[in-house]
Amino acid sequence: GPGTWLVFTVAVPAWLLAAPSSIRERPCPQSCRCDGKIIYCESNAFRDVPSNVSVGTQGLSLRYNSLVNLRTHQFAGLSQLVWLYLDHNYISAVDGQAFHGIRRLKELILSSNKITLLKNNTFHDVPNLRNLDLSYNKLQVLQPNQFLGLRKLLSLHLRSNSLKTVPMRVFLDCRNLEFLDIGYNRLRSLTRNAFAGLLKLIELHLEHNQFSKINFAHFPRLTNLRALYLQWNRIKMLTQGLPWMWTSLQKLDLSGNELQVLDPSTFQCLPNLQTLNLDSNKLSNVSQQTVEAWISLTTISLAGNLWHCNPNICPLVEWLKAFKGNKESTMICASPKEAQGEKVTDVVETYNICTATPTPIPSTTSPLTSAFHPELLPVPTQSVVDKKLMWNRTASPAPSEASPTIPLPDTEYVSFHKIIAGSMALLLSVAIILLVIYVSWKHYPSSIKQLQQRSAVKKRQKKARETERSLNSPLQEYYVDYKPSHSETMDVLVNGTGPYTYTISGSRESIMYSLVSLPEAKEKMNYAFGFDFCLVFVHIKKHFTTLHYTSETFFKGVLILEPDSST
């Protein structure tokens, strides 16, 4: 009736007011961001968990803060919590009862802290965990019952710690675990029962540890494992200790190890292996029995090994030719020295290594009397190896069909790189010589012309200096030497004149320049060098006004001629 309704309407509000504050919604903590029942208190330098977090919170992120310790019952009031992120703090100590009261927790992230030790019962209060991340800490040891009770755990991350051992049966209760990462630790060996109980494990990471030997007998109960990562360890031997078939394994990564030989039995127990990574090991060849065990592969990686390109490589090469899957890398010869850097398949095809009578690779150190003679053989492929010199045996008779296979020399070959380098050097030398010849020829005519011009100028200068020196020299006296006959003498004495012939004596060069200095004489008189001048007295008289001759000079036959000052 009306009374009952009145009592109800009054009692309910009173009960709510009297209810403890723990069941009422609290305001969002200061410096945090709230999204319904999710609280983000990230990057705020918190040193402790905020005290006013709502009890109904289902997700709490305290990432990138300054938390140092997790005390006992640290999260006891957050019973509804489903996930808790505590990564990227400075947590070094975790109390064994720190997670008491949050049994609903499914995801706990404690990565990137400074945790060195976890107590045996640390996770016993969170049996519903699905994902536990302890990576990038400083854990040195795992307690024997570290993960006891975590039967619902699906993924466990222990990457980048300092673990040296894995205790026996430490994962025994993790029967539903599907992902386990123990990579980047310091593990040196595994106990036979280290992974006991992991019946549903799908992916196992053991990369970047310090294993030197792996025996598949350590994984006898991983019947559901599909991917095993063992890259970048120090594994020198991979063995199969028990005669059992690991039918579930599909991917195996062994790259970055020190494997030199592959045991066929190791792969014979992996009938469903699809992806195999053997990059960066020390393999020189693979046996026929091993490649025959790779019947199910779809992807293979073999780069970075020490492949020895001799007939022992043939089983692998023939298998690769028939392989229809994905070859993720190129195989390069590491030996012999002359084949270094070349593709394995190219060397095998070029030198017919895998035929009954392989063509020997040429020797660069053999003497001139060697039985090998160079001959350039045409090869249909376009590989750079095709440009190499091929050598045939000519000193010895050709082998018959019944003769055994000629072994391929392992040490003496022609280096293709040396041939290329020598050819380039020769071409460069020829080019330089031709350039010098061309430049010399191009500039030669002008050089000769310049030399000729310089010589002509020097001659003209010399002649001009001699002419100037002659013109500046003083005028010489000339002597007329004559020897008159008796009749000529009488004509002169009686008539005062007559035909006479005189010889002018003196310096021929001086006479020449004297005559040249007289204009009329230059026009009317002929002169030459190399003989005495013969002049008619009448001509001489025309140019000399005074003729001195006395009886003394007359009888001596010497006349002194003086030039006329008017001429």
TrEMBL record:
<keyword id="KW-0770">Synapse</keyword>
<dbReference type="InterPro" id="IPR003591">
    <property type="entry name" value="Leu-rich_rpt_typical-subtyp"/>
</dbReference>
<keyword id="KW-0677">Repeat</keyword>
<protein>
    <submittedName>
        <fullName>Uncharacterized protein</fullName>
    </submittedName>
</protein>
<dbReference type="InterPro" id="IPR032675">
    <property type="entry name" value="LRR_dom_sf"/>
</dbReference>
<dbReference type="InterPro" id="IPR001611">
    <property type="entry name" value="Leu-rich_rpt"/>
</dbReference>
<keyword id="KW-0433">Leucine-rich repeat</keyword>
<feature type="transmembrane region" description="Helical">
    <location>
        <begin position="419"/>
        <end position="441"/>
    </location>
</feature>
<keyword id="KW-0732">Signal</keyword>
<comment type="similarity">
    <text>Belongs to the LRRTM family.</text>
</comment>
<feature type="signal peptide">
    <location>
        <begin position="1"/>
        <end position="18"/>
    </location>
</feature>
<dbReference type="Pfam" id="PF13855">
    <property type="entry name" value="LRR_8"/>
</dbReference>
<keyword id="KW-0812">Transmembrane</keyword>
<keyword id="KW-0325">Glycoprotein</keyword>
<dbReference type="GO" id="GO:0045211">
    <property type="term" value="C:postsynaptic membrane"/>
</dbReference>
<dbReference type="InterPro" id="IPR050333">
    <property type="entry name" value="SLRP"/>
</dbReference>
<keyword id="KW-0472">Membrane</keyword>
<keyword id="KW-1003">Cell membrane</keyword>
<keyword id="KW-1133">Transmembrane helix</keyword>
